[in-house]
Specification:
Order of helices and strands: HHEEHHEEH
Largest sheet: 2 strands, antiparallel
Radius of gyration: 25 Å
Helix content: 25-40%
CATH class of the largest domain: Mainly Beta
Number of domains: 2
CATH architecture of the largest domain: Ribbon
Strand content: 5-15%
């Protein structure tokens, strides 16, 4: 077996381009050529198909863990739970404001219940009337 220099695994666009160039090769050969293999102490090459396939999924921008946001990238998603912070504040994160398509400066009226808080968006039309 010839000693060849191990290459860093390709990712993103470089990975997609290389896989396209190797379209007539087996998936194991594609994975090896893209750097998804290790060499054991005994000099045996082992192809890491799982890392290769996960890198392909990431390169294609496919989200398997849940909903994607508008630009197709992952990120934090709304859990619909918040905790009171040590300073007594409640923070409503951007996952919620993005989902509701809120903009900086949007205003709300706050109504307090026994164990709930109700937010009612103040319409610009209401203020002008």
């Amino acid at each position: 077996m010839s000693k060849k220099k191990k290459i860093e695994p390709l990712m993103g666009e470089a990975l997609l381009k290389k896989v396209k160039e190797l379209e007539h090769h087996s998936k194991e050969e594609k994975a090896r050529e893209c750097g998804y293999y290790t060499v054991t102490k005994n000099g045996v090459e082992r192809v890491n198909m799982m890392k290769f396939l996960n890198a392909l999924i990431d390169a294609e921008g496919i989200e398997l863990d849940g909903k994607q946001n508008a630009n197709g990238r992952g990120g934090r998603s709304a859990s619909y739970r918040i905790s009171v912070q040590s300073n007594g504040n409640l923070l409503i994160g951007s996952a919620y404001t993005k989902q509701m398509e809120l903009k900086p400066g949007d205003e709300f009226e706050i109504s307090l219940g026994r164990k709930h808080i109700h937010l009612k968006q103040i319409d610009q039309l209401d203020e002008d009337a």
